[in-house]
Design a protein that fits this description.
2-oxoisovalerate dehydrogenase subunit alpha; oxidoreductase; 7 strands; EC 1.2.4.4; thiamine pyrophosphate; 45% helix; Rossmann fold; 13 helices; 2 domains
Length: 372
Amino acid sequence: MSYTEATVQLLSPQGSLVESDATAPYLPLIAGLDESRLLDFHRQMVVIRRFDIEAGNLQRQGQLALWIPSLGQEAAQVGSGYAARSQDHIFPAYREHVVGRIRGLDPMRIIEMLRGLSHGGWVPEETGNFHLFTLVIGSQALHATGYAMGMRFDGVVGTGDPEVDAATLVYFGDGATSQGDVNEAFVFAASYQTPQVFFLQNNHWAISVPVERQSRTPLYLRPAGFGIPSVQIDGNDVLASYATTRAGLDAARAGEGPRFIEALTYRMGAHTTSDDPTKYREDEETRFWSERDPITRYEAYLRGKGVGDDFFREVAVEAEDLAADARRRTLALTDPPTSKVFAHVYTDAHPLVAEEAAWYSAFEAGYEEAGS
């Protein structure tokens, strides 16, 4: 299921700005971006792709239990991630590595999780309100909706103060739209007019099931049945991703209710490193999307604006440095103490957990005494 007549595209595959009736509402949002932010779009896409490839290599070399690639989806994530304000809360699925990085998450936290060294979490208030990766397909849509309901109850929606008004942004894939949790989230979001944006990254494959087998109509049409305004965009266009998400979040924060964005992109790699996409995908389809690579397209746009080779060389070096640093730090990781299993079970200290931790410590000590 590729582009439709409704697809909003601000950058052509050749990297030129598209000016039309469909893009007119969004072009002012792009015009308002300063040069540093435009350059950051490219920087983040390139750096995270290199990190992503290196993490996949580390998994193949036995350093990680699993890796979840984001190759090909950089524009959808970078544009939307930069559209959020600091007070917004972001609920990822499990592939939004660069959104976490934009919000302040050290990507090594993801590597630690997929190496099995952590409980799989971080403290959102320490990572720019970027919440935990959610491996249960679609459940984060309910988490985001519940949080957005709380925002409305707390009175941080529709005040007119840009420093106060807040919203949630939740990511999920095309496969998740077949889950009950996502559809239930639509019901509550529409009923309570929650301040949130549902951001669907339609990468065309729910593991080995193509999107056309899940839906006979474009997925952006589904929310209309729940009363949620929606838009379909070219997800390999970082400017379209930014502008439509910015517009959607602004409307949500203003108290106008939820919005839905379907970003048409493509998962160039495997679903995870446990998957072999060559068994179910056609080369022609992969070639079609590789010709619409988000980084190549955006580089052409920047070069058209006069950005020179020095910048692109600088970004390439930064990407290599991050990849090398990730490898070095991964190889230096050590196993956590067994006591870690008792940490963060509750927010505050709990006597039952303390009792169990003491018992386990004595249990382990018994083995050490027996061995000596």
